[in-house]
Amino acid sequence: MNKKNVRDCRSKRKLSVATRTLIILLLPAVFGSFLSARPTAYADSPTVWKLVWSDEFDGPAGSAVDSNKWAFDVGGNGWGNNELETYTSRTANAYRDGGQLVIKALKETLTGPDNITRNYTSARLLTRNKFSQAYGRFEARIKIPYGQGIWPAFWMLGDNIGTAGWPNCGEIDIMENIGKEPTIVHGTFHGPGYSGGNGVTAAYSLPSGQFSDDFHTFAVEWEPNVMRFYVDGLLYKTRTPADLPAGTTWVFDHPFFIILNVAVGGAWPGNPDATTVFPQQMLVDYVRIYQRTTPSNVPVLFTDEGANRALALDSVTFKRDPFSVRNSLNFSSDKTTRVMLLSANLDLQPGDGPSIVTAQADDGKGHTFPLAVEWVGRLPGFDWITVVIAKLPDELTGAGQVLISVNAHSQTSNQVSVVISP
Question: Per the residue annotation, which of 83, 85, 139, 176 is the catalytic one?
Answer without folding.
Answer: 176
